[in-house]
Amino acid sequence: MPIPSIDSYAVPEPREANRVDWQLDPARCAVLVHDMQRYFLAAYDRSADPAASAVTNMTRIVEDARTHGVPVIYSAQPGDQHPHRRGLLREFWGTGMTEGEDTEIIPELAPREGDMVLTKWRYSAFQRTDLRQILSHLQRDQLVILGVYGHMGCQVTATEAFMHDIQAFLVSDAIADFSREEHQDAVDYVAKRCGAVLSTGDVLAAWDASAASSAGVANTAQEAARV
Where would I find the Isochorismatase-like domain in this sequence (predicted)? Predict the structure, then answer.
């Protein structure tokens, strides 16, 4: 059962101010690229928003994450799921995708060597996966969330991150949804209830500022050592 086509819409601006003043730190965070598989993106006109802006912004964030040493983690659902594995998802969304091209991450965001790919079974990327253990092993307690669909997997993953005491940052212009209203609702819910909402520009600026600060500290230490 394919996902019905999704009408194009302008990416909404967040309406709610963040309730928390969390500072994004490249030494503490990982990036989650949520469900960016061909099957899910096929519902969009890729030349129009929200998909056009979202994919462009996700690509910028992922490339910058690699530059700053921020781990990049992908979630991807498997194809040809057995009905017992599929569970209640089957009642809402049918049998899902088939193994093969459907399951591939879109080329613009294809994982590279060193990235991690999680097999995902439910809306939340934490459910029935090792995401919590991976973040603990990497000593990361912040999660930057990009992908589809905003009011489903992205919002639910941010909520569950909160339950694990992981700071979730939902990137409002690097997600796409079924509609502008649902996109808006997801962004507002996260800002009010379980995380922080940032723009792509906010994420890149935070990482650059942190890198500049670290470089300044290192230069100061080197100068002090020469004295």
Answer: 29-200
DSSP state, 85?
A: H
Residue 215: the pLDDT is: 60
| Whole-number pLDDT of residue 24 | 97
pLDDT tier at 94 (50, 70, 90 boundaries)? Answer: confident
Domain edges within the chain: 29-226
Mean pLDDT across the stretch 156-173?
98
Known catalytic membership, residue 25: no
Distance CA 70, CA 77 (A): 23
152-180 mean pLDDT: 98
Consecutive H or E run containing 94: none
**Which stretches within the chain are classed as H helix?**
38-41, 51-67, 83-86, 89-93, 131-137, 155-163, 180-193, 200-226
Q: Is 167 helix (H, G, I), strand (E, B) or coil?
A: strand
Considering the segment(s) 29-226 as one domain, its CATH architecture is: 3-Layer(aba) Sandwich (3.40)
Which one is catalytic: 35, 115, 173, 177?
35
